[in-house]
UniProtKB/TrEMBL annotation:
Residues spanning the signal sequence: 1-39
UniProt keyword annotations, A-Z: Signal
Gene3D superfamilies, alphabetized: Poly-gamma-glutamate hydrolase, zinc-binding motif
Name listed for the protein in its UniProt record: Phage replication protein
Pfam family, one: Gamma_PGA_hydro
UniProt cross-references to InterPro entries, sorted A to Z: Gamma_PGA_hydro, Gamma_PGA_hydro_sf, TAT_signal
Secreted in keyword set: no
Length: 317
């Protein structure tokens, strides 16, 4: 397939996905109608994944995608001010990012909201909070999320972290001492030595990366103490296979902080799904994070304790 044909096929797929998200029509039916006969392939041929957008800017410029239908961006920067000469007030030191939220890497949007101190949502009449409403926890953090909203095929909206050039995302990272960036992966991608890890056979694992070693250590300690499995991507026992997940690139937004270092979590699908009573859809996750037997809250609070530990050593003078 020539580069032009690959680009045209990719655009056809995205057009159908965006239309399906808008109309609710079956994606496969639209693809069948939209694909030229000359592009037909034998039934035993599997198409490769679409070429990834090289930046958020290029994604936003694609006229086949509509913000609010194909994808969304949500963020919150908390208003703070110091107007009294005789008093000193605190300042936000940590931001939470979910660069591949929504249907791209499921569960990361909800965790972003939760760790930031807000509700991921609530079933009607259950009173568990509104993401756009008041915080549900006493301490809050700024956050940014990019979310895939397509009914299927959200992986086409994935932009590699080091290629992220969203102005709000980068401005959020640059104005904080710390960033915790949330990501999703598949367990088999990690190539961990399964003969020894995970010892329980549970494939729910959090790989902790980023250039802030103290932040990584706090996250590993708190997540493990909360009953989950976490490994430091730089641990020599595992680092040989975790290079792709160690968050070491200086252009990764988790490291584009005031300190030029931060932390990220790569959470396996098994771990993310276990945090919800119904992980199958955005609505299901929003209405079931508090129906996971306390797992969502336990993981959320472990991350918040790690943040508090790091911030305790970062006084604003």
């Amino acid at each position: 397939m020539t580069p032009f044909e690959h680009s045209a096929s990719r655009r056809t797929i995205l057009t159908a996905l965006a239309a399906a998200a808008t109309t609710g029509a079956p994606v496969l039916g639209q693809l069948a109608a939209a694909t030229p006969a000359s592009a037909a392939l034998p039934s035993d041929v599997t198409l490769p994944d679409p070429i990834e957008y090289k930046s958020n800017t290029l994604l936003y410029q694609d006229t086949n995608l509509v913000e609010g239908t194909s994808y969304s961006r949500r963020y919150r920067r908390h208003q703070q001010f110091d107007l009294k000469m005789s008093q000193k007030y605190g300042f936000q030191r940590t931001a939470i990012l979910a660069l591949h939220g929504g249907g791209i890497e499921i569960g990361t949007s909800e965790l972003c909201l939760g760790i930031a101190g807000y509700s991921p949502g609530s079933a009607p009449g259950e009173g568990m909070g509104d993401p756009a409403g008041d915080p549900i926890l006493p301490t809050v953090h700024d956050y940014f999320m990019f979310e895939g909203l397509l009914s299927d095929g959200n992986s086409a909206l994935h932009v590699t972290s080091k290629n992220c050039d969203d102005h709000v995302a980068l401005a959020t990272a640059a104005s904080h001492l710390n960033v915790l960036s949330l990501h999703g992966c598949k367990f088999e991608q990690l190539n961990l030595p399964t003969a020894t890890y995970p010892p329980t056979g549970d494939l729910g694992v959090a790989v902790v990366g980023g250039l802030n070693a103290a932040f990584r250590a706090a996250l590993v300690t708190e997540i493990n103490s909360a009953g989950f499995q976490a490994v430091d991507a730089y641990d020599p026992r595992y680092s040989a296979t975790l290079g792709e997940f160690n968050g070491s690139h200086d252009k990764n937004p988790c490291n584009r902080t005031m300190l030029a270092m931060g932390a990220q979590l790569e959470l396996t699908t098994e771990l993310r799904k276990s945090l919800f009573g119904n992980p199958s859809s955005r609505g299901g996750r929003a209405e079931s994070w508090y129906k996971s037997g306390g797992r969502f809250e336990a993981f959320r609070d472990a991350c918040r304790r790690a943040i508090a530990t790091v911030e305790a050593g970062q006084p604003i003078l």
